[in-house]
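Handout, page 2. Input:
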Amino acid sequence: MEEKFGLAAYGGRVEEVKKILRENPSFNVNSPGFSSQPALHHASNQGHDSIVSILLAHPDIDPNLKKEGRDTPFMIACVCGSTSCVRLLLQDHRVKVNEPRKNGYTPLLGCLPGPP
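Output:
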């Protein structure tokens, strides 16, 4: 189920995402699925703002979850240039906009490789 959900988020399939959530009320929306990434990371990466909105509205979503200990959905949206997703994430009071990556860089500093 996690992989199917992640693929739906990655592919921008809004109705499939809604259906999975509706039919599986105890589903863990933060679970790593397709490509070991949570659905919010996929949607932020691909610029699927409709899915980002759906996921941010879910009571169990963790908008600051770091993919493989590194990147939050906000960081991913910034790096990928998904401006509509960046805007949605900025509107959510839970999102930490200056959460550092593993290398110490933050969305406000940029995503340069290596130490700051």
